[in-house]
Amino acid sequence: MHIDFHDQTNQVNESHIDMIQRLISFAAERENITQEAEISINFVDNREIQIINRNYRQIDRPTDVISFALEETGEGEIKIIGEDLPIILGDIVISIDMAKEQADQYNHSLERELGFLALHGFLHLLGYDHMNENDEKAMFTRQEELLNAFGLSR
């Protein structure tokens, strides 16, 4: 799994990047995702994620994580067919400000919160969602299973 990290905040240390790299690679393996798959993870502040949230979801407030899946076909789109094309799953955007606030709020480490948010975003890229009760239960159960198996439990 290739992960392209971008830290616009200059607040994410190397150990957090390493942990997220290992966690997402671990989850990708457990979800049977090819090693050639690619994603990007972007760290921004509350101001930037609020702009993204407003522009793409029409919700004018900061949020903790947003995912943009590239492998799903939208209404009216034609599926790209090709043999040697890289599998680019999409982009994950994480607010460092929200991650810090939520780590304090839930009384756990910033490392745990960043891992939780990165994995949450990654599962969205794979098609998991929480738009209804059944989907939410399936997503959050899988999320906790992966976090616990990786050793990043509460």
Notes on the protein architecture:
- By secondary structure, the protein is of the alpha/beta class.
- The chain has one domain (2-150): 3-Layer(aba) Sandwich (Collagenase (Catalytic Domain)), CATH 3.40.390.30.
- The chain is built from 5 helices and 4 strands, in the order βαβαββααα.
- It has helices spanning 14-30, 46-57, 96-105, 110-125, 133-150; strands at residues 2-7, 38-44, 65-69, 88-95.
- A 4-stranded mixed β-sheet has the order 1-2-4-3.
Features:
Collagenase (Catalytic Domain), 47% helix, four-stranded mixed sheet, 5 helices, globular, 154 residues, alpha/beta
CATH topology title: Collagenase (Catalytic Domain)
Radius of gyration: 15 Å
Uncertain residue ranges:
77-82
**Per DSSP, what share of the residues sits in E-state strands of 2 or more residues?**
15-25%
The backbone outline, from C-alpha atoms, is: globular
Alpha-beta content class: alpha/beta
CATH architecture: 3-Layer(aba) Sandwich
CATH class: Alpha Beta
CATH homologous superfamily annotation: Metalloproteases ("zincins"), catalytic domain
Structurally, the number of domains stands at: 1
The biggest beta sheet reads: 4 strands, mixed
The residue fraction in helices comes out at 40-55%
Q: What is shown here, in short?
A:
The protein is of the alpha/beta class and 154 residues long. It contains five helices and four strands.
Annotate the secondary structure layout.
Blueprint: E1 2-7, H1 14-30, E2 38-44, H2 46-57, E3 65-69, E4 88-95, H3 96-105, H4 110-125, H5 133-150
Helix pairs in contact: 1-4, 3-4, 4-5
